[in-house]
Design brief:
Number of helices: 6
Distance between the termini: 77 Å
Shape: globular
Order of helices and strands: EHEHHEHEHEEH
Mean pLDDT: 89
Strand content: 15-25%
Number of strands: 6
Helix content: 25-40%
């Protein structure tokens, strides 16, 4: 006679302590990677009769054509910041800082528009930069320059050193206008826009890549911690 061993089914596992499951985290309604970058366009000259606004208007048209960028203008001529820096600024200086600091702080990236004065960039731009520190950190910076024979490129090279000290990342490609006044008509339109438009696209594409990369990195791990 063949014997058979009965297989007894295992009992169901005893239920554990009763508790509601932890709620799933509420997802960000707009993921970091898909949100447009807030771009501060810094107009770096406050010189009387300055040409900067003409170049700035052209630049803003290029930025507005870029789907990943939301521009905001920071004009050094719009804030009367003293050259004497202070850790405890007066109420008057605080009021002037309030015109520019929130825009710099909110920005994910920057384009700095600079002329060239005596082989370098304007004191007004250096003053705006020096009144701030954390606002620049771990953010990308692109440059648009204008001037005479050099097209402002010597000013840009000096600015790269300054922004490196501020833990910012400068992108390689720039836009420069040599003898800038001759390139624009009386209405501010560029006479031959193909080349500078292509240069602007290359610079803005690089800025956008770095802007997204750095913003995502800071969302995972804040810079400097």
């Amino acid at each position: 006679m063949t014997s058979h061993t009965a297989v007894i089914p295992a009992p169901d596992a005893a239920p554990g302590p009763t508790s509601d499951p932890a709620p799933d985290p509420v997802p960000d309604p707009v993921p970091v990677r898909t949100r447009p970058l807030r771009l501060a366009v810094v107009i770096g000259s406050n010189r009387e009769g300055r040409f900067g606004p003409v170049v700035a208007d052209w630049l803003l048209a290029q930025v507005e054509a870029h789907p990943d960028l939301l521009p905001d203008v920071v004009d050094v001529a719009g804030a009367d910041l003293p050259t004497a820096l202070s850790g405890s600024p007066s109420p008057e200086v605080v009021a002037e800082l309030a015109k520019v600091t929130p825009k710099l702080s909110a920005a994910d990236a920057f384009v700095v528009l600079t002329p060239e004065y005596n082989h370098s960039f304007p004191a007004s731009l250096k003053n705006l930069i020096d009144w701030h520190f954390t606002e620049w950190q771990a953010k990308p910076v692109g440059f648009v320059s204008y001037g005479g024979v050099s097209g402002g490129l010597r000013a840009v090279e000096h600015l790269r050193q300054v922004f490196a000290e501020l833990h910012a990342v400068t992108v390689r490609d720039t836009v420069s206008f040599h003898h800038a006044g001759s390139h624009f008509d009386d209405e501010g339109n560029h006479r031959d826009p193909a080349v500078p438009t292509a240069a602007a696209k290359a610079m803005l594409d690089q800025l956008t890549w770095w802007g997204h990369a750095l913003r995502e990195a800071k969302a995972c791990h804040p810079y400097g911690t």
